[in-house]
Design goal:
Helix content is about 45%, strand content about 20%. The protein is of the alpha/beta class. Helix 3 packs antiparallel against helix 4.
Length: about 280
């Protein structure tokens, strides 16, 4: 995990704990003094891919630096949670463990859910050259962590923010057309004015637009909500002269048929915007 992401994690952890411990934890404070110590286990109750160990550790250490956390698995490891697989052991003040528990588990279950879902897509098309991408459909404030989780699951990151690439979508095209630009001139303008050599990608929805995008010199052509047979035709037309990306309505039921078309990438917003959490629990031993 890079230094920037670690800095962002520190900020996220502080905000999350402030949210949960705004006025303290009277339940725990009434029942336990600081001197009572215990051991606890984080248990996986469903199958998945672990992600978020650094974030979860940061939560426990932010609440109480004296807590000791020992991870049994590392980010990227798969597990079968049928028998409640032990993921980590925490020892120290029972009061501190209980105060950190929910926030740590919340991060862990969400990030592991993204990694798990991503791996399912990556595994499904493992025999094809196509790679899985995420999108910018992320929870505000969590984007870099969510995109980190995608890489842990074996996927790759699309744009991390708007400055990370030029992507001309339908709203750009429609509004630019009202101002006198046509499909080709939109791409030409983007190519001529692209800062720092950013690649120019354009969204297309039919074969005619594929041909126009290719003729205009687009670096990446996004085949948006096209049927697999159209995608296959588009890949043949493009013939390696631009990178191809499939997007829109792709799920585990049809991802193989999309990969079979020969596209370079498949981008899937559901990896981050509607993923199911992995089921974890913390139990005091």
């Amino acid at each position: 995990m890079d230094k920037l992401l670690k800095y962002e994690v520190d900020q996220l952890v502080e905000n999350a704990l402030n949210e949960d411990l705004l006025l303290g934890d009277p339940t725990t404070d009434i029942l336990f003094t600081e001197g009572i110590v215990a051991k606890a286990s984080i248990l996986a109750k469903s199958t998945g891919v672990l992600c978020g160990t650094y974030v979860a550790s940061s939560v426990f250490n932010r609440v109480d630096p004296s807590l000791e956390i020992e991870w049994c698995l590392s980010d990227g490891d798969s597990f079968v949670g049928k028998n409640e697989t032990s993921i980590a052991q925490i020892s120290g003040s029972v009061s501190s463990i209980l105060k950190a528990e929910r926030t740590a588990i919340n991060f862990l279950q969400h990030l592991s859910g993204i990694a798990t879902e991503t791996k399912a897509y990556v595994d499904a098309i493992a025999t094809y050259k196509t790679e899985i991408l995420d999108t910018r459909k992320t929870i505000p404030g969590l984007r870099h962590l969510q995109k980190y989780a995608v890489t842990i699951g074996g996927g790759k990151n699309h744009r991390k923010n708007l400055s990370d690439g030029i992507l001309i979508k339908d709203n750009h095209i429609n509004m630019a057309a009202k101002n006198g630009d046509n499909f080709k001139s939109i791409i030409s303008k983007a190519l001529q004015n692209s800062p720092n050599g950013l690649k120019v990608e354009i969204e297309v929805s039919n074969i005619d637009e594929v041909v126009m995008a290719l003729d205009a010199g687009a670096d990446i052509i996004m085949l948006d909500n096209m049927e697999p047979n159209q995608m296959k035709e588009a890949v043949v037309i493009i013939d390696g002269n631009a990178v191809t990306e499939a997007s829109g309505g792709i799920n585990l039921d049809n991802v193989i048929s999309v990969a079979e078309t020969g596209v370079d990438f498949i981008s899937i917003g559901a990896l981050t915007h509607s993923v199911s959490a992995v089921d974890y629990s913390l139990e005091i031993i």
